[in-house]
Amino acid sequence: MYTLEDLGWDAYFQQQLTAQPNIEGAEPARVAEELKGAYRIINQRGVVSAFLPGRFLHAAASGGLPSAGDWVLARSLPGEDRALIERLLERRTKLSRQQAGEKTGEQLLAANVDIVFVVASLNREYNVRRIERYLTAVWESGARPILVLNKADLAENTASALAETQVAAPGVPVQLTSAATGEGIEPLQRHLNPRETGVFVGSSGVGKSSIINRLAGREQQAVHDVRSSDDRGRHTTTSRQLLVLPGRGVIIDTPGLRELQLWDGGGGAGQTFAEIAALAQRCAFRDCTHEREPGCAVRAALEAEELDEGRLRSYRKLERERLFIARKHDQSLQTEEKRKWKRIQKNNRQRQRVRGR
């Protein structure tokens, strides 16, 4: 059995308990897995199935439903091996992306995480621009990133990949690993701290679950080989799952992501591309797009070969994407506001008709 502290409970969540009215019979628990509306939660007594009351369902559109890593207050049902989730506690951090498809909306990948292990594979799928994208989302989440370059045993030139990654992520720890041979697993363990939570993210087939099995010291997560034809992975982990490593903290495994569109990313881009953000402070115009404006310090640095052109292209692409999502998000909010006022006006007309009878 675990204590709440083993599961990541701290003063931030305890303060919420004392600030809000108690719910009789409800106790803190952490969401271990979400399964199409049903949940597995873990508390001091172990893992139990849980479900949501109807009032939670209209919170779905605003990202108000529990996700892996969330803390909730849950009440055990008499005579049943199930619990009812009564309250979702405020999140300290959250890792999100723009949901896949055309609809604008936030998809929560993990909640209340301290560390995000961004896993990339040193095979044909290695892409430093993708790493910059992940870093932008991680910095925006409020957690700290660790870059994991896995499958080092298959790489032809690990030194080159390591150097390229360090340029793209200055100041961020980078660890070479091989889940197959165990290389780099012990140094990776040192980033895991008791009472902290780490989440593993990356594309399919990069070896997230295999690394977690190495860290756990047993086959905790199912794994599949990648396709030999193109080095692309097959989804093994199909839902976000929280696991407890006794004495070493909590980890969350996530399904492989085919794409990671930014949900916000404004502050995260400033940290990922710190050198560009610093140059931008010296531009003649505060709203400089670093395209054609006179007095642009960013373009001047590029022309003087003091700034990597690939980094600037990546920054511009992520900024365009972020602004596009922000505009779509504003339009969605405006549409929802109009719908709300239409409902209010309709209810008012119905009340007036009732009064006139």
Give a brief outline of the structure.
By secondary structure, the protein is of the alpha/beta class. 33% of the residues lie in helices and 22% in strands.
Please give a handful of descriptors for the protein shown.
Rossmann fold, six-stranded mixed β-sheet, single chain, OB fold (Dihydrolipoamide Acetyltransferase, E2P), 9 helices, 357 residues, alpha/beta
Question: Structural class per helix/strand content?
Answer: alpha/beta
Instruction: Tell me the number of helical segments per DSSP (H or I, 4 or more residues long).
Output: 9
Mean pLDDT: 85
Query: What would CATH call the homologous superfamily of the domain at 94-253?
Result: P-loop containing nucleotide triphosphate hydrolases
* Cα end-to-end separation: 64 Å
What is the CATH class of the domain at 94-253? Alpha Beta
Radius of gyration: 23 Å
Ranges with pLDDT <50 over ≥5 residues? none
Strand order of the largest sheet: 10-9-8-11-13-12
Gross CATH architecture of the domain at 94-253: 3-Layer(aba) Sandwich
> Could you tell me the number of beta strands?
13
Helix content: 25-40%
- Tell me the strand percentage band: 15-25%
